Amino acid sequence: MASRRLALNLQQAARSKSAINAIKTKSLSPLTRGLATPVTYGSKTESTTLSNGFTIATEHSPWAQTSTVGVWIDAGSRAETDKTNGTAHFLEHLAFKGTQKRTQQQLELEIENMGGHLNAYTSRENTVYYAKAFNSDVPATVDILADILQNSKLEPQAIERERDVILREQEEVDKQLEEVVFDHLHATAFQGQPLGRTILGPKENIESIQRSDLETYIKTNYTADRMVLVGAGGVPHQQLVDLAEKYFAQLPSEPTDATARRIAEAQKQKPEFIGSEIRVRDDTMPTANIAIAVEGVSWKDEDYFTALVTQAIVGNWDRAMGTSPYLGSKLSTFVSQNNLANSFMSFSTSYSDTGLWGIYLVSSNPTSIDDLVHFTLREWSRLSMNVTPAETERAKAQLKASILLSLDGTTAVAEDIGRQIVTTGRRLSPEEVERVVGNITEKDVMDFAKRKLWDRDIAISAVGQIEGLLDYNRVRNDMSRMLS
Protein backbone atom coordinates (compact mmCIF):
# COMPACT_ATOMS: atom_id res chain seq x y z
CA MET A 1 0.00 0.00 0.00
CA ALA A 2 2.87 2.36 0.89
CA SER A 3 4.57 1.54 -2.43
CA ARG A 4 1.34 2.27 -4.35
CA ARG A 5 0.99 5.60 -2.56
CA LEU A 6 4.61 6.49 -3.37
CA ALA A 7 4.10 5.64 -7.05
CA LEU A 8 0.93 7.75 -7.13
CA ASN A 9 2.75 10.71 -5.58
CA LEU A 10 5.55 10.41 -8.13
CA GLN A 11 3.04 10.30 -11.00
CA GLN A 12 1.29 13.39 -9.64
CA ALA A 13 4.63 15.20 -9.28
CA ALA A 14 5.58 14.32 -12.86
CA ARG A 15 2.21 15.58 -14.15
CA SER A 16 2.59 18.79 -12.10
CA LYS A 17 6.08 19.35 -13.51
CA SER A 18 4.84 18.85 -17.08
CA ALA A 19 2.05 21.34 -16.50
CA ILE A 20 4.46 23.90 -15.07
CA ASN A 21 6.83 23.47 -18.02
CA ALA A 22 3.88 24.06 -20.38
CA ILE A 23 2.96 27.24 -18.51
CA LYS A 24 6.58 28.42 -18.67
CA THR A 25 6.68 28.11 -22.46
CA LYS A 26 3.48 30.16 -22.82
CA SER A 27 4.25 32.79 -20.21
CA LEU A 28 6.51 35.78 -20.64
CA SER A 29 7.43 35.87 -16.92
CA PRO A 30 8.94 32.50 -15.94
CA LEU A 31 8.08 30.85 -12.62
CA THR A 32 11.04 30.96 -10.29
CA ARG A 33 9.98 27.94 -8.28
CA GLY A 34 7.37 25.45 -9.37
CA LEU A 35 7.48 22.77 -6.72
CA ALA A 36 8.10 22.79 -2.97
CA THR A 37 11.59 21.48 -2.26
CA PRO A 38 11.84 18.62 0.24
CA VAL A 39 14.14 19.69 3.05
CA THR A 40 16.00 16.39 3.54
CA TYR A 41 15.75 14.73 0.14
CA GLY A 42 19.20 13.65 -0.99
CA SER A 43 20.85 15.01 2.19
CA LYS A 44 23.74 12.94 3.39
CA THR A 45 25.21 12.46 6.83
CA GLU A 46 28.74 13.81 7.18
CA SER A 47 31.01 12.90 10.07
CA THR A 48 34.39 14.04 11.37
CA THR A 49 36.41 12.78 14.33
CA LEU A 50 38.75 15.09 16.25
CA SER A 51 42.19 13.96 17.42
CA ASN A 52 40.84 13.19 20.91
CA GLY A 53 38.16 10.83 19.50
CA PHE A 54 35.24 13.28 19.73
CA THR A 55 32.89 12.79 16.75
CA ILE A 56 30.79 15.37 14.90
CA ALA A 57 27.95 14.15 12.65
CA THR A 58 25.55 16.35 10.68
CA GLU A 59 22.83 16.33 8.07
CA HIS A 60 22.73 19.76 6.43
CA SER A 61 19.48 21.05 4.92
CA PRO A 62 20.26 24.41 3.27
CA TRP A 63 16.63 25.57 3.29
CA ALA A 64 15.98 24.87 6.97
CA GLN A 65 15.64 27.96 9.18
CA THR A 66 16.35 26.12 12.43
CA SER A 67 18.75 23.46 13.66
CA THR A 68 18.79 20.83 16.36
CA VAL A 69 22.20 20.30 17.92
CA GLY A 70 22.93 17.89 20.72
CA VAL A 71 25.49 15.64 22.37
CA TRP A 72 24.81 11.91 22.43
CA ILE A 73 26.82 10.07 25.11
CA ASP A 74 27.41 6.33 25.02
CA ALA A 75 26.52 5.92 28.69
CA GLY A 76 23.29 5.50 30.62
CA SER A 77 22.08 3.44 33.57
CA ARG A 78 24.02 0.45 32.21
CA ALA A 79 27.23 2.36 33.01
CA GLU A 80 26.46 2.37 36.75
CA THR A 81 27.13 0.00 39.63
CA ASP A 82 24.56 -1.37 42.09
CA LYS A 83 25.60 1.30 44.56
CA THR A 84 25.37 4.18 42.06
CA ASN A 85 22.33 3.05 40.03
CA GLY A 86 20.38 6.22 39.26
CA THR A 87 23.43 8.49 38.88
CA ALA A 88 23.07 9.08 35.11
CA HIS A 89 19.47 10.22 35.51
CA PHE A 90 20.38 12.31 38.57
CA LEU A 91 23.07 14.09 36.51
CA GLU A 92 20.56 14.87 33.78
CA HIS A 93 18.43 16.68 36.37
CA LEU A 94 21.39 18.70 37.67
CA ALA A 95 22.69 19.73 34.24
CA PHE A 96 20.44 22.78 34.04
CA LYS A 97 20.99 23.94 37.63
CA GLY A 98 24.00 26.15 36.97
CA THR A 99 27.63 25.96 35.82
CA GLN A 100 30.89 27.71 36.68
CA LYS A 101 30.04 30.35 34.02
CA ARG A 102 26.25 30.61 34.31
CA THR A 103 23.76 30.54 37.15
CA GLN A 104 20.54 28.58 36.65
CA GLN A 105 18.72 31.87 36.00
CA GLN A 106 21.29 33.00 33.40
CA LEU A 107 21.10 29.63 31.66
CA GLU A 108 17.31 29.73 31.44
CA LEU A 109 17.27 33.40 30.31
CA GLU A 110 19.86 32.76 27.60
CA ILE A 111 17.80 29.94 26.09
CA GLU A 112 14.56 31.91 26.52
CA ASN A 113 15.97 35.04 24.85
CA MET A 114 17.05 33.14 21.75
CA GLY A 115 13.65 31.42 21.51
CA GLY A 116 15.37 28.06 21.85
CA HIS A 117 14.39 24.78 23.41
CA LEU A 118 16.82 22.85 25.65
CA ASN A 119 16.18 19.30 26.85
CA ALA A 120 17.81 16.07 28.01
CA TYR A 121 16.96 12.44 28.63
CA THR A 122 18.56 9.26 29.95
CA SER A 123 18.07 5.70 28.71
CA ARG A 124 19.71 2.41 29.66
CA GLU A 125 22.60 3.01 27.26
CA ASN A 126 22.59 6.72 26.35
CA THR A 127 22.47 10.16 27.91
CA VAL A 128 21.42 12.97 25.58
CA TYR A 129 21.52 16.75 25.87
CA TYR A 130 20.08 18.64 22.91
CA ALA A 131 18.71 22.03 21.89
CA LYS A 132 16.68 23.44 19.02
CA ALA A 133 17.37 27.00 17.90
CA PHE A 134 17.63 29.34 14.94
CA ASN A 135 20.68 28.74 12.74
CA SER A 136 22.22 32.05 13.85
CA ASP A 137 22.09 30.87 17.48
CA VAL A 138 23.89 27.55 16.92
CA PRO A 139 27.28 28.85 18.23
CA ALA A 140 25.65 30.05 21.47
CA THR A 141 23.77 26.74 21.76
CA VAL A 142 26.95 24.66 21.41
CA ASP A 143 28.62 26.91 24.01
CA ILE A 144 25.77 26.19 26.46
CA LEU A 145 25.84 22.42 25.79
CA ALA A 146 29.62 22.32 26.30
CA ASP A 147 29.28 24.36 29.48
CA ILE A 148 26.64 22.14 31.14
CA LEU A 149 28.52 18.97 30.15
CA GLN A 150 31.96 20.09 31.37
CA ASN A 151 31.36 22.72 34.04
CA SER A 152 28.20 21.82 35.99
CA LYS A 153 28.48 23.04 39.59
CA LEU A 154 26.69 20.06 41.18
CA GLU A 155 25.95 22.21 44.23
CA PRO A 156 24.94 20.33 47.43
CA GLN A 157 21.72 22.39 47.76
CA ALA A 158 20.71 21.54 44.17
CA ILE A 159 21.45 17.84 44.78
CA GLU A 160 19.19 17.82 47.85
CA ARG A 161 16.38 19.63 45.97
CA GLU A 162 16.52 17.20 43.06
CA ARG A 163 16.27 14.15 45.35
CA ASP A 164 12.65 15.06 46.10
CA VAL A 165 11.91 15.80 42.45
CA ILE A 166 13.27 12.41 41.32
CA LEU A 167 11.44 10.55 44.10
CA ARG A 168 8.16 12.14 42.94
CA GLU A 169 9.03 11.20 39.37
CA GLN A 170 9.60 7.62 40.51
CA GLU A 171 6.16 7.56 42.15
CA GLU A 172 4.61 8.66 38.84
CA VAL A 173 6.50 6.00 36.90
CA ASP A 174 5.33 3.35 39.38
CA LYS A 175 1.73 4.21 38.46
CA GLN A 176 2.36 3.41 34.78
CA LEU A 177 1.87 -0.33 34.53
CA GLU A 178 3.59 -0.68 31.18
CA GLU A 179 6.75 0.94 32.59
CA VAL A 180 6.63 -1.31 35.67
CA VAL A 181 6.17 -4.49 33.62
CA PHE A 182 9.04 -3.62 31.27
CA ASP A 183 11.36 -2.72 34.17
CA HIS A 184 10.57 -6.11 35.72
CA LEU A 185 11.14 -7.79 32.35
CA HIS A 186 14.66 -6.32 32.10
CA ALA A 187 15.31 -7.19 35.75
CA THR A 188 14.51 -10.87 35.24
CA ALA A 189 15.94 -11.31 31.71
CA PHE A 190 19.26 -9.71 32.66
CA GLN A 191 19.18 -10.35 36.40
CA GLY A 192 22.24 -9.37 38.42
CA GLN A 193 23.62 -7.46 35.41
CA PRO A 194 23.82 -3.72 34.61
CA LEU A 195 21.18 -3.90 31.83
CA GLY A 196 18.69 -5.31 34.33
CA ARG A 197 18.70 -2.21 36.52
CA THR A 198 16.16 0.60 36.22
CA ILE A 199 17.01 4.03 34.84
CA LEU A 200 15.84 6.01 37.90
CA GLY A 201 17.46 3.61 40.37
CA PRO A 202 16.06 2.27 43.66
CA LYS A 203 14.67 4.68 46.26
CA GLU A 204 17.55 4.10 48.70
CA ASN A 205 20.09 5.11 46.00
CA ILE A 206 18.19 8.28 45.09
CA GLU A 207 18.24 9.22 48.77
CA SER A 208 21.96 8.48 49.20
CA ILE A 209 23.75 9.48 45.96
CA GLN A 210 26.51 11.99 46.76
CA ARG A 211 28.40 14.62 44.77
CA SER A 212 31.44 12.29 44.61
CA ASP A 213 29.32 9.62 42.86
CA LEU A 214 28.24 12.15 40.24
CA GLU A 215 31.82 13.35 39.67
CA THR A 216 33.07 9.76 39.31
CA TYR A 217 30.36 9.02 36.74
CA ILE A 218 31.38 12.08 34.69
CA LYS A 219 35.09 11.16 34.81
CA THR A 220 34.33 7.58 33.80
CA ASN A 221 31.82 8.19 31.01
CA TYR A 222 31.89 11.78 29.74
CA THR A 223 34.98 11.15 27.60
CA ALA A 224 35.53 12.20 23.97
CA ASP A 225 35.58 8.64 22.58
CA ARG A 226 32.02 8.09 23.87
CA MET A 227 30.47 11.37 22.69
CA VAL A 228 28.97 12.56 19.41
CA LEU A 229 28.00 16.16 18.62
CA VAL A 230 25.05 15.97 16.23
CA GLY A 231 23.60 18.71 14.03
CA ALA A 232 20.49 18.51 11.85
CA GLY A 233 18.92 21.35 9.90
CA GLY A 234 20.49 24.57 8.66
CA VAL A 235 23.88 24.19 10.37
CA PRO A 236 26.72 23.38 7.90
CA HIS A 237 29.02 20.49 8.84
CA GLN A 238 32.22 22.56 8.88
CA GLN A 239 30.69 25.15 11.20
CA LEU A 240 29.86 22.44 13.75
CA VAL A 241 33.36 20.94 13.40
CA ASP A 242 34.88 24.36 14.14
CA LEU A 243 32.62 24.78 17.17
CA ALA A 244 33.58 21.30 18.42
CA GLU A 245 37.26 22.18 18.07
CA LYS A 246 36.63 25.30 20.15
CA TYR A 247 34.52 23.76 22.93
CA PHE A 248 35.26 20.00 23.09
CA ALA A 249 38.89 19.57 21.99
CA GLN A 250 40.08 19.58 25.63
CA LEU A 251 37.97 16.58 26.64
CA PRO A 252 40.05 13.54 27.64
CA SER A 253 39.88 10.76 25.05
CA GLU A 254 39.42 8.09 27.75
CA PRO A 255 39.14 7.91 31.55
CA THR A 256 42.37 9.12 33.16
CA ASP A 257 41.71 7.35 36.48
CA ALA A 258 42.64 3.62 36.67
CA THR A 259 39.49 2.75 38.65
CA ALA A 260 37.34 4.57 36.12
CA ARG A 261 39.02 2.62 33.30
CA ARG A 262 38.25 -0.69 35.04
CA ILE A 263 34.59 0.31 35.46
CA ALA A 264 34.41 1.34 31.79
CA GLU A 265 35.90 -2.03 30.70
CA ALA A 266 33.42 -3.99 32.85
CA GLN A 267 30.52 -2.26 31.11
CA LYS A 268 31.52 -3.76 27.75
CA GLN A 269 30.76 -7.36 28.80
CA LYS A 270 27.81 -8.82 26.87
CA PRO A 271 24.87 -9.50 29.21
CA GLU A 272 23.57 -13.05 29.50
CA PHE A 273 19.86 -13.57 28.79
CA ILE A 274 18.28 -15.72 31.51
CA GLY A 275 15.04 -17.63 30.98
CA SER A 276 13.08 -16.68 34.11
CA GLU A 277 10.03 -14.84 35.41
CA ILE A 278 8.78 -12.19 37.83
CA ARG A 279 5.15 -12.26 39.01
CA VAL A 280 3.43 -9.60 41.10
CA ARG A 281 -0.11 -10.81 41.72
CA ASP A 282 -2.65 -8.19 42.77
CA ASP A 283 -6.30 -9.21 42.42
CA THR A 284 -7.48 -5.68 43.24
CA MET A 285 -6.19 -4.54 39.85
CA PRO A 286 -8.66 -4.64 36.93
CA THR A 287 -6.27 -6.21 34.43
CA ALA A 288 -3.50 -8.73 33.92
CA ASN A 289 -0.41 -7.11 32.38
CA ILE A 290 2.04 -9.61 30.93
CA ALA A 291 5.25 -9.25 28.91
CA ILE A 292 6.91 -12.29 27.33
CA ALA A 293 10.25 -12.02 25.53
CA VAL A 294 13.06 -14.03 24.00
CA GLU A 295 16.60 -12.70 23.59
CA GLY A 296 16.44 -10.21 20.73
CA VAL A 297 19.05 -8.62 18.50
CA SER A 298 21.49 -5.73 18.92
CA TRP A 299 21.51 -2.52 16.87
CA LYS A 300 24.44 -3.92 14.87
CA ASP A 301 22.98 -7.38 14.23
CA GLU A 302 22.41 -8.33 10.59
CA ASP A 303 18.95 -9.55 11.68
CA TYR A 304 17.99 -6.12 13.08
CA PHE A 305 15.50 -5.20 10.35
CA THR A 306 14.29 -8.79 9.96
CA ALA A 307 13.41 -8.76 13.67
CA LEU A 308 11.39 -5.58 13.14
CA VAL A 309 9.53 -7.05 10.15
CA THR A 310 8.76 -10.20 12.15
CA GLN A 311 7.49 -8.05 15.01
CA ALA A 312 5.28 -6.11 12.58
CA ILE A 313 3.75 -9.39 11.33
CA VAL A 314 2.61 -10.16 14.89
CA GLY A 315 1.39 -6.55 15.07
CA ASN A 316 -0.37 -4.37 17.64
CA TRP A 317 -4.04 -4.17 18.54
CA ASP A 318 -6.14 -2.20 21.04
CA ARG A 319 -9.87 -2.66 21.56
CA ALA A 320 -10.18 0.71 23.37
CA MET A 321 -8.98 2.55 20.27
CA GLY A 322 -11.82 1.11 18.22
CA THR A 323 -9.22 -0.65 16.08
CA SER A 324 -10.58 -3.06 13.54
CA PRO A 325 -9.75 -6.72 14.24
CA TYR A 326 -8.98 -7.15 10.55
CA LEU A 327 -5.61 -5.45 10.48
CA GLY A 328 -3.84 -8.14 8.52
CA SER A 329 -2.36 -9.51 11.75
CA LYS A 330 -3.68 -13.03 12.28
CA LEU A 331 -3.28 -12.64 16.04
CA SER A 332 -5.39 -9.46 16.20
CA THR A 333 -8.26 -11.19 14.38
CA PHE A 334 -8.13 -14.25 16.64
CA VAL A 335 -7.77 -12.29 19.91
CA SER A 336 -10.62 -9.93 18.97
CA GLN A 337 -13.04 -12.65 17.88
CA ASN A 338 -12.47 -14.67 21.05
CA ASN A 339 -12.37 -11.73 23.48
CA LEU A 340 -8.99 -12.82 24.85
CA ALA A 341 -7.44 -9.40 25.54
CA ASN A 342 -7.97 -5.67 25.76
CA SER A 343 -4.79 -4.99 23.78
CA PHE A 344 -1.43 -6.35 22.77
CA MET A 345 1.79 -4.76 21.51
CA SER A 346 4.66 -6.63 19.92
CA PHE A 347 8.14 -5.15 20.39
CA SER A 348 11.74 -5.52 19.30
CA THR A 349 13.99 -3.58 21.68
CA SER A 350 17.67 -3.39 20.77
CA TYR A 351 20.80 -2.52 22.73
CA SER A 352 24.47 -2.33 21.74
CA ASP A 353 25.07 -6.08 22.09
CA THR A 354 21.72 -7.75 22.85
CA GLY A 355 17.98 -7.09 22.87
CA LEU A 356 14.49 -8.26 23.79
CA TRP A 357 11.92 -9.45 21.22
CA GLY A 358 8.44 -10.14 22.51
CA ILE A 359 4.90 -9.04 23.23
CA TYR A 360 3.04 -7.06 25.91
CA LEU A 361 -0.48 -8.30 26.69
CA VAL A 362 -3.25 -6.60 28.68
CA SER A 363 -6.44 -8.48 29.56
CA SER A 364 -9.40 -7.90 31.86
CA ASN A 365 -10.61 -11.46 31.25
CA PRO A 366 -8.76 -13.44 33.95
CA THR A 367 -10.24 -16.81 32.97
CA SER A 368 -8.82 -16.56 29.44
CA ILE A 369 -5.19 -15.72 30.25
CA ASP A 370 -3.99 -19.27 29.62
CA ASP A 371 -5.65 -19.25 26.17
CA LEU A 372 -4.28 -15.78 25.40
CA VAL A 373 -0.69 -16.80 26.15
CA HIS A 374 -1.06 -20.19 24.45
CA PHE A 375 -2.40 -18.81 21.16
CA THR A 376 0.11 -15.95 21.19
CA LEU A 377 3.03 -18.38 21.42
CA ARG A 378 1.32 -20.61 18.87
CA GLU A 379 1.46 -17.62 16.50
CA TRP A 380 5.18 -17.30 17.27
CA SER A 381 5.62 -20.98 16.35
CA ARG A 382 3.80 -20.40 13.05
CA LEU A 383 6.39 -17.79 12.10
CA SER A 384 8.98 -20.59 11.83
CA MET A 385 6.91 -22.59 9.34
CA ASN A 386 4.29 -20.66 7.46
CA VAL A 387 4.67 -16.96 6.65
CA THR A 388 2.98 -15.66 3.50
CA PRO A 389 4.46 -13.13 1.05
CA ALA A 390 1.36 -10.93 1.53
CA GLU A 391 1.76 -10.50 5.29
CA THR A 392 5.50 -9.95 4.87
CA GLU A 393 4.87 -7.14 2.34
CA ARG A 394 2.26 -5.57 4.64
CA ALA A 395 4.68 -5.67 7.59
CA LYS A 396 7.49 -4.18 5.46
CA ALA A 397 5.24 -1.34 4.26
CA GLN A 398 4.20 -0.57 7.85
CA LEU A 399 7.80 -0.67 9.07
CA LYS A 400 9.10 1.60 6.31
CA ALA A 401 6.27 4.05 6.95
CA SER A 402 6.86 4.11 10.72
CA ILE A 403 10.63 4.62 10.34
CA LEU A 404 10.65 7.09 7.46
CA LEU A 405 7.59 9.12 8.43
CA SER A 406 9.02 9.60 11.93
CA LEU A 407 11.92 11.62 10.44
CA ASP A 408 9.67 14.65 10.16
CA GLY A 409 11.80 17.37 11.75
CA THR A 410 15.33 18.33 12.69
CA THR A 411 15.01 16.89 16.22
CA ALA A 412 13.86 13.48 14.91
CA VAL A 413 16.69 13.45 12.35
CA ALA A 414 19.25 14.42 15.02
CA GLU A 415 17.94 11.61 17.24
CA ASP A 416 18.31 9.11 14.40
CA ILE A 417 21.86 10.26 13.60
CA GLY A 418 22.99 10.36 17.26
CA ARG A 419 21.62 6.95 18.18
CA GLN A 420 23.07 5.24 15.09
CA ILE A 421 26.53 6.86 15.29
CA VAL A 422 26.86 6.11 19.02
CA THR A 423 25.74 2.48 18.72
CA THR A 424 27.03 1.37 15.30
CA GLY A 425 29.56 4.00 14.24
CA ARG A 426 27.67 4.96 11.06
CA ARG A 427 24.23 6.12 9.98
CA LEU A 428 22.04 4.28 7.50
CA SER A 429 20.33 6.86 5.31
CA PRO A 430 16.55 6.67 4.85
CA GLU A 431 17.18 5.41 1.30
CA GLU A 432 19.39 2.59 2.63
CA VAL A 433 16.78 1.66 5.24
CA GLU A 434 14.10 1.48 2.55
CA ARG A 435 16.31 -0.72 0.39
CA VAL A 436 17.34 -3.10 3.21
CA VAL A 437 13.75 -3.54 4.43
CA GLY A 438 12.53 -3.95 0.85
CA ASN A 439 14.89 -6.90 0.29
CA ILE A 440 13.55 -8.94 3.25
CA THR A 441 11.47 -11.96 2.18
CA GLU A 442 9.15 -14.36 3.97
CA LYS A 443 12.00 -16.91 3.91
CA ASP A 444 14.18 -14.47 5.89
CA VAL A 445 11.38 -14.08 8.45
CA MET A 446 10.96 -17.85 8.85
CA ASP A 447 14.73 -18.32 9.12
CA PHE A 448 14.88 -15.63 11.83
CA ALA A 449 11.99 -17.25 13.73
CA LYS A 450 13.62 -20.71 13.58
CA ARG A 451 16.85 -19.34 15.03
CA LYS A 452 15.51 -16.83 17.55
CA LEU A 453 11.99 -17.97 18.55
CA TRP A 454 11.60 -21.71 18.08
CA ASP A 455 12.22 -23.54 21.38
CA ARG A 456 14.06 -20.59 22.92
CA ASP A 457 14.06 -19.65 26.60
CA ILE A 458 11.69 -16.86 27.56
CA ALA A 459 11.54 -14.14 30.20
CA ILE A 460 8.11 -13.38 31.69
CA SER A 461 7.02 -10.31 33.64
CA ALA A 462 3.45 -10.31 34.94
CA VAL A 463 1.60 -7.81 37.15
CA GLY A 464 -2.03 -7.68 38.30
CA GLN A 465 -4.82 -10.24 38.15
CA ILE A 466 -2.60 -13.09 36.93
CA GLU A 467 -3.90 -16.17 38.74
CA GLY A 468 -4.77 -17.67 35.35
CA LEU A 469 -1.18 -17.45 34.09
CA LEU A 470 0.04 -21.03 34.24
CA ASP A 471 3.38 -22.38 35.46
CA TYR A 472 6.55 -21.12 33.73
CA ASN A 473 7.44 -24.55 32.35
CA ARG A 474 3.96 -24.95 30.82
CA VAL A 475 4.36 -21.58 29.07
CA ARG A 476 7.91 -22.45 28.00
CA ASN A 477 6.68 -25.69 26.38
CA ASP A 478 4.50 -23.66 24.01
CA MET A 479 7.68 -22.32 22.40
CA SER A 480 8.11 -25.56 20.44
CA ARG A 481 4.54 -26.57 19.70
CA MET A 482 3.90 -28.16 16.32
CA LEU A 483 0.92 -26.70 14.48
CA SER A 484 -1.97 -29.04 13.80
SSE layout and pairing:
Blueprint: H1 2-26, E1 45-49, E2 55-60, E3 66-73, H2 87-94, H3 104-113, E4 117-122, E5 127-134, H4 138-150, H5 156-174, H6 177-189, H7 203-208, H8 211-221, E6 227-233, H9 237-248, H10 258-266, E7 276-281, E8 288-295, H11 304-314, E9 316-318, H12 330-337, E10 343-350, E11 355-363, H13 369-382, H14 389-405, H15 410-424, H16 430-438, H17 442-452, E12 459-464, H18 472-477
Parallel strand pairs: 2-6, 7-12
Antiparallel strand pairs: 1-2, 3-5, 3-6, 4-5, 8-11, 8-12, 9-10, 10-11
Helix pairs in contact: 4-9, 8-10, 11-14, 11-17, 14-16
GO molecular function: metal ion binding; metalloendopeptidase activity
EC number: 3.4.24.64
Protein name: mitochondrial processing peptidase
Could you write a compact summary of the structure shown?
InterPro entries: Metalloenz_LuxS/M16, MPP/UQCRC_Complex, Pept_M16_N, Pept_M16_Zn_BS, Peptidase_M16_C. This protein is of the alpha+beta class and 484 residues long.
What labels describe this entry?
Cytochrome Bc1 Complex, Chain A, domain 1; single chain; 18 helices; metal-binding; alpha+beta; 6-stranded mixed beta sheet; 45% helix; 484 residues
Overview of this protein structure:
The protein has about 475 residues and is of the alpha+beta class. The protein has two domains: about 45-265, Metalloenzyme, LuxS/M16 peptidase-like (Cytochrome Bc1 Complex, Chain A, domain 1), CATH 3.30.830; about 275-480, Metalloenzyme, LuxS/M16 peptidase-like (Cytochrome Bc1 Complex, Chain A, domain 1, 2-Layer Sandwich), CATH 3.30.830.10. Helix content is about 45%, strand content about 15%. It is built from 18 helices and twelve strands. It has helices at about 1-25, 85-95, 105-115, 140-150, 155-175, 175-190, 205-210, 210-220, 235-250, 260-265, 305-315, 330-335, 370-380, 390-405, 410-425, 430-440, 440-450, 470-475; strands at about 45-50, 55-60, 65-75, 115-120, 125-135, 225-235, 275-280, 290-295, 315-320, 345-350, 355-365, 460-465. The strands form two sheets. It has a six-stranded mixed beta sheet with strand order 1-2-6-3-5-4, sandwiched between helices. A hairpin with a 4-residue loop joins strand 10 (about 345-350) and strand 11. Helix 11 crosses helix 17 and helix 14 (about 390-405) packs antiparallel against helix 16 (about 430-440). Its main location: mitochondrion. Its EC number is 3.4.24.64.
